Amino acid sequence: MRPIFAWISVLAATVLAGVWSGCDAVGPPEFEEEIVVEGYLEAGKPIGYVTVSRTLPVNEAYDPAVQAVSGASVRIELLGAHGDVEASWALFAPEPASGRYRTREAVDVLPLRTYRLVVDAPGAGTVTSETTVPALFRFVDTEERTFVYDTGEAPLFEITEPFYPGRQSIFLITTIALEPDTANTTPFYDASGEDFFTLRENVSPPLNGANFDRTPSGGMHIRYPWIGLTFYGLNEMRIQAIDDNVFDFVRSNAVQQGDQGGSTLSPGEIPNVIDHVEGGRGLFGSFASASIRFRVLPNPDR
């Protein structure tokens, strides 16, 4: 997951550490151990790993080797239009103590289909979650282009318009510096004082597709903001169209962490993270992804 969804693994670590009970103005509730699941489906790609673990009190250090759940019955089901099960795949743990489960054969994820995760953990009951996978999309022109930093309008790219049932598409845009160097940062980040390694990947908040311009061919224009660029040289922009589960998790987790106005809320007003998991906690979500590489040169006039 690191290359595409590094941001979500960081967020899920909050779940695995047990920081899941909402703040209570009266006092914290008594801790109750819960099963945590973490898994993601990418449209057109094989089903990946599903991690199963247990929560622990917020004041205790999380140890994956201790909290991982072994011996669980884990399966992923492909659902029909009426909720019937069209296909089912049992997952197994190559390393039983890791709590990481996968299919025995490669199973490609179908776009615009609904999948259900079912986990039966020893002594903990059944945990379920469903996700509807976004449609595939792509960049119209994948040729590598070169831009000069902060000259004229920001770089413009065109993608085919994704589709998600019942709503506008929601995107996350990640920029990954492929040639990071301390002497190669853009002016904005050169003065930011941030840690070098944290600048390699820059992730946007959720972006509504309704805010992007449409093209005559029916696609969408993505204008890349210069402020999102941390390093000159070769960069990769990855766009993920996300499902409702990922969208709700990201936006509600941002409030928990003090982003998007969360820091202005009093303890009793901070809402719980929205996870769409029945019988446990965590995130079982899906996304479609497209990427493109572009090169940025320093502006000789700056």
Q: How would you describe what is shown here?
A:
There is one protein chain. This protein has 302 residues and is mostly beta strands. The protein has 2 domains: 2-21 and 33-134 and 244-286, no CATH class; 145-241 and 290-297, Immunoglobulin-like (Sandwich). 12% of the residues lie in helices and 34% in strands. The protein contains 4 helices and 15 strands. The strands form 2 sheets. Strands 1, 2, 3, 4, 5, 6, 7, 8, 10, 11, 12, 14 and 15 form a 13-stranded mixed beta sheet that branches. A hairpin with a 3-residue loop joins strand 6 (114-121) and strand 7. The longest helix has 15 residues, at 2-16. The two termini are 38 Å apart. The model is unreliable at 16-25 (pLDDT under 50).
Count of β-strands: 15
Unreliable spans are 16-25
Mean of pLDDT: 85
| Portion in strands | 25-35%
Shape: globular
* First-residue to last-residue Cα separation: 38 Å
Write a compact overview of the structure shown.
The chain has 302 residues and is mainly β. The chain contains 4 helices and 15 strands. The protein has 2 domains: 2-21 and 33-134 and 244-286, no CATH class; 145-241 and 290-297, Immunoglobulin-like.
